[in-house]
Amino acid sequence: MRRKLTQRGRERRDQLIRCAAQLFAERGYHPTSVADIVECLGVGKGVFYWYFSSKEELLSELLKSSHLSLRRRQQAAIGDEPDPVRRIELGIRATLQWFHEHRDYFAIIQFAATDETFAPVLRRNREVALGDTIRHLKEAIVEGRIPDSDPETLAHAIHGVIDQLTRRYLLETNEPVSRVADAAVSFCLGGLAGGLDEGVSPVS
Length: 204
Hints:
Mean pLDDT: 91
């Protein structure tokens, strides 16, 4: 469902998404009803259905909007940095900081990955995120900053490290985000610069 919204309408829609995100994280997606979401915001069901046709559509929009928010944070952190390796570092740090501030969203994304309903949205988000990283990696390879390796494989490796460290150290043990970011940067950039002398072949 797509409506042309006023500023007030966009704010109300965002409020519904935020309330839903909080409830999905606290109670789980399936136990949370539309009635729970509108009760959280103090409005009627008619308000919900003005903006969303279903709870499934709301979660899909939540996944899209959270990915856009994360990407904007990464872009703001990278800015006009000319060094592609430094851009990768800044992107890693910005990503972990964003997940530290939006830990509820990480749990929701993990749930969505188990439900085929949301596979298209997650696939598109993943393609865009990997594409951003691949561009920096290709430039770093061309400039001779890192060994000539398959950039797609390297991008998947970087994203895998971020995913695992976020889950284990930001969500489960609540480690300081700066410490987790330092570990991620050290491992990823160390591997790119010094641990791949023989290059990396594409994973089939």
